[in-house]
Structure formats: C-alpha cells, structure tokens
Amino acid sequence: MMQYFGAIEAGGTKFNCAIFNDAREILAACRIPTTHPQTTLHQAAAFFQTYKHDYPLAALGIASFGPLDLDPKSSEYGYITRTPKPDWSHTPLLDFFKQQCGCPIRIDTDVNGAALAEYQWGAAQHTDVAVYLTIGTGVGGGIIINGKPLHGLVHPEIGHMLVDAPPDVEGVCPFHGNCVEGLASGFALNHIWQQPAETLPIEHKAWQIEVGVLSQLCHNLMMTLSPQKILMGGGVMAKTGLLERVQAATDSSLAKYISLPSHQHISDIICSPYFEQDAGLYGGFALAQSALVNL
C-alpha cells in the first residue's frame, strides 16, 4: 500500500511544505512566508489538512532553522531555542505539529536533514562520514556519521567556527565576530562590502577573503571529522569559480598531510550537493521516513 509523507523545510524566510509518496515523488507543495510563528505554523498545518483525505500522512519530517532543542529528555524538545529571528525564540515546533497532524514526527536541523537526504539518495551515498554545508544568508552545516545525523550537546553549529580574517575586515556575527558566518555568509558579504554579493565581480577582494574563510572551514573539517564528502550548497556557492577556488585553497592548506586514496582528488571530496536548492525539502522527507523506524 502506498504511504504518504509530509515534509517541511522551515527556513528563516519561508516554509517549504510538501507531500511525498514513498517513491519520492512530490504530490503537492506550497511555499509560506516566514512571518509570525502563529501565522506561519497555522498556514503550514492548513496545507496538510487540505490533503488529509487524499494523502493521509504516515509521518511528518521537519527540517528547521535553529538553534533547536534536540534532547528527547528536555522539557523543550523540538523547540526553536534562542534565535535572532524576531518572535521565534522558544517556539514549540514539534508539539504544535503533533497536535495538528496526529502522526509520527521527526525533527532536526535543516542542514542535518539535507545531509541525510544527500546520504540516502544524493552525493554522499556510501560514505561513513559526510558533511553538508549551506553558504547562504547564513552558514550552517549538518553531519552524517554511519547513516545518522550527528547530535551531541546540542547539534553542529559549523557556521560559528572561528577562523582568521584580514585585520581590515570585521565579521558581523553579533555573537562571535570573525566566525565563518560572520565573514562568509551572504548577509556578511552584503554588510561588509555594502553591496549584494551577487554583484561583486570575481576579481573583487571579497572573493579572495571568501575563499580563505571557506578553505579554512574545509581544512578544519577534514582534520577533525575525516569526511569522505563535504558538500557545499547555498546561494553564495553559485558564484562561478568559487567552489573550484575553495577546493584548490584547501588542497594547498592540507599540504599533503592527509593521504587521499589513489583514485581521488580533493574535488571528489569537496563538491556540490546533488539536490542543490531542494536539499532541505528532501531532508524533511528523509526525516519523515526515519520517524517510522528506530534510528
């Protein structure tokens, strides 16, 4: 019998909602602006209610912006915790959709969800350790180890890894200043250089700094996690030539300290995701399927 799965990619600017069948086909979808929590969540729930007779959900997966409380023992499990997004701190995402949908639900970060989708069907298949990075308005990272999203004290916050920057450039992260997100996100590029990132020509100093920051990030991930894949997605990575420059700079900084398998090049490890801009939504689907099994 065909099963149906709900998926939510809960982002800071929009909620992407979809219903999949177990053949990974999208049967219905909608996009909802992220405004006030009550408005946005009720609109998302209404989408699934519209199709409840045609496509009754076996499970729902939520791949959300964070930070999230992912400790099942916590009284705020499934909540968005402290976030700079106005009005969204301490929003009980999991509890809300449990009440509205009445089916098994799995929640994780948007980037852990995307990493899981890439591991199951995309560019990170057959890996033991894989990292999914999104370099967009912000910077986030999800990690899959032996087929499972990494959780720990909280969850990975790769975008807030501290890195070196030129002395004349000041990062914009209100918490950490010169972290990856504070220097290399789309928001940071716009703020530091006072123009949209996509309008900066490739020879602009901004991209030299961007390559330096992102290659430090990849270097540190290679040394700490030894991943077989580092998938670099997000709007900023759409800049022509950026990925190739990050690959080359990382290869140089590693200085042959890590011996790659004879048949591999750094471009086989640091590469683009399969799902590109849809990774988060397919991540929600992957989480929904995992809600029916004991990961």
UniProtKB/TrEMBL annotation:
Coiled coil: none annotated. It catalyses: D-fructose + ATP = D-fructose 6-phosphate + ADP + H(+). It comes from the Bacteria. Pfam families: ROK. The keyword Transferase does not apply. Keywords: Carbohydrate metabolism, Magnesium, Metal-binding, Zinc. Its EC number is 2.7.1.4. CDD domains: ASKHA_NBD_ROK_BsFRK-like. InterPro entries: ATPase_NBD, Carb_Metab_Reg_Kinase/Isom, ROK, ROK_cs. Its cofactor is Mg(2+). The keyword Protease does not apply. PANTHER family: FRUCTOKINASE, TRANSCRIPTIONAL REPRESSOR MPRA. This is fructokinase.
